[in-house]
Design a protein that fits this description.
The structure is a homodimer of 426-residue chains. With 426 residues, the first copy, chain A, is α/β, with parallel strands linked by helices. Chain A is 40% helix and 14% strand. The longest helix of chain A is centred in the C-terminal third of the chain and has 30 residues, at 305-334.
Chain lengths: 426, 426
Amino acid sequence: MSTPYVEMSKEQLEKEYSIIKEEYNNYKSKNLSLDMSRGKPSPDQLDLSLPMMDILTGTSDYQTDIDCRNYGGPQGIKEAKKLMADMMSVDPDNIIIFGNSSLNVMYDIVATAFVKGIMGNTPWSKLDKVKFLCPVPGYDRHFAITEYFGVEMISIPMTEDGPDMDLVAEYVNNDESVKGMWCVPMYSNPLGTTYSDETVRKIAALKPAAKDFRIIWDNAYCVHHIYEDKQDSLLDIFAECDKCGNSDMVYMLASTSKITFPGSGISALATSANNIKDVMSRVTWQTIGHDKINQLRHVRFLKDLDGIRIHMAKHADLIRPKFELVLDILDKELGDLNIGTWKKPNGGYFISFDSMDGCAKSIVSKAKEAGVVMTGAGATYPYHNDPKDSNIRIAPTYPSLEELSIAAKLFTVCVKLVSLEKLLNI
Amino acid sequence: MSTPYVEMSKEQLEKEYSIIKEEYNNYKSKNLSLDMSRGKPSPDQLDLSLPMMDILTGTSDYQTDIDCRNYGGPQGIKEAKKLMADMMSVDPDNIIIFGNSSLNVMYDIVATAFVKGIMGNTPWSKLDKVKFLCPVPGYDRHFAITEYFGVEMISIPMTEDGPDMDLVAEYVNNDESVKGMWCVPMYSNPLGTTYSDETVRKIAALKPAAKDFRIIWDNAYCVHHIYEDKQDSLLDIFAECDKCGNSDMVYMLASTSKITFPGSGISALATSANNIKDVMSRVTWQTIGHDKINQLRHVRFLKDLDGIRIHMAKHADLIRPKFELVLDILDKELGDLNIGTWKKPNGGYFISFDSMDGCAKSIVSKAKEAGVVMTGAGATYPYHNDPKDSNIRIAPTYPSLEELSIAAKLFTVCVKLVSLEKLLNI
């Protein structure tokens, strides 16, 4: 058992500081070059999908409800709609298959709301003020889209059950300029939190002041479990919305980016018939169709929801040791020191770490100085502004176990170093 | 030699009408179902690219300047930039590789101009009026994009050399609300016209009243020759623009949609360094990258510009007989009758036909009634409004030669029928 830093005398702290400082300098002298910054699958995870590249050949049959090789089919081929619908627990009629990037689909939803409006409502570009609720910590690329369009972003603290719903309801139900909310409802980025049934019900029961209020329900990690025996589950948002007369309130997104190949997967939007019609009224002018050969490739490789589950279990086998390694190192190195807290998620791609207030930027900076790139401190908040300067997102999937062991240990050294500097007023 | 209809007496016309009417009714009784409406490659053209599906397998090397299987590379992989740059006669630094649809790239350019503005200029959504010049007849899907965004479209007549440049200059140089012009400069859709060197020079020498005036130079048919010995060539618009201080005026688009597989190809934007920077400042928020595996597949299959030329010659061998068949039938059936004119293009995907004024809609409608779908009359004009109601776009590539022979003959019967009805005031 180590003594928590706050219980140490000045002399003890100074002694500890000189030890940690030396440890840190040792790491620095190693000229490391490691990366724990982005939620990227590792090369061995990508290898899992290499057999997909043998699925379609020069002699394959490319005919489905349409010749997949030619123009057409802007809503996607029937088989791909079925596959993605099963994965997203919706009806295939409520699906549009898009290209390789669900982020692009979300961008287009916001862009179209600005320039054309949603379902005949006033385009957001004509309004004085457009606001989005942003559960924090959250996904930097969500916030980047709304920042790009000049949306005012309001941080909503995350609880163990999801976003603070009292606060959400206060904004959504009373402020007509609140037009949207970003959500990663399952294994959230970066916390790994899955919204509780009660939270989902409360979201569905919102009474938005704005007719065109929409929730972007980015179900990016819907099948991305880490454990076989500990799996979160998420309530069906559409069924709950239907009960509350909010059938058109949610756009759900998912993709195969972290199932097969990031950048060469397929993405899908699931939403109400009204929204499908509204979105297709844009898509029709935007493209003659997305990549149907890649849709077919995915369908023939993954087959069905069982196929996806089997494939995701292989990912889990590669990811699990990495999460456990980092969590073990955090426990061992920081467990008793009371200078940080972290979550143990059951799925997703991140470990969310909270340092003592005012330390995150320095920790990330120290890690970088010693050759380990972390996600920029503040990135998990709108405008990169973490008011407490405490949240750090750890992405353990990309490095090898060996690299990760070094990177995670160095990280804990940086946490100790910066915490000691704070306590010692250095 | 047949007698031109206008030189016929009323009796002769009536006699001819009863013959043609019977001929038309014979076709109707055949219950045909043929399609000459869209510029789609035929299945045998698609077969030419089937070997591309054997290029990448589970044991291929996916490493280029980046692991093509993972996230990243929003501007495209180096090899794909080189390939598309060579095809578009520009420097690879001036290229961004996008997804499967150049139409989508054009849509995004217009959408972004509306919501964010081009290079810091006022977003078009904040302006009272935005106008685009539309050379006519032109591509319906271009016009559809600007119509969707509420742009006022101004028709510019096409000459043998390209758009009427006196008219273009008058608008562009004097009206600040003229923000853009659609161009298909080579083997234009539907005329098959390639802009003359003088036209390209005049375009480059425009002195736009609007700082953010942009030409969308859709070079969709840049390698799409029909003949080996008769090939149009297009002057380098960028070199000419540079000479005139208009380096940022042109966005050039191209894709492999009609080289490999429509819907599963790759597209590219070629433009100035300033425009690249401006466009990337959006793309960065829009996506983590386009499909790099498909980029790699295309590079390894097509190899280089010579590879593209060899592949396009195979397409030409399949397309040429179809163009010649239709042109022969038009010559034989309508050559002497003075009831229509048409072009004999050296490339592209269309034959443009002009009927007597006021007959196009009826001709297309009669053809449809007899089971042959043509592109809707008027589609080649903004707002589907062909003021003379005379232009019809014939797309000969998709049907088989046998089908095409029937469809083209029926088309000439419809032209005769409707022309006779006009002359006889029926």
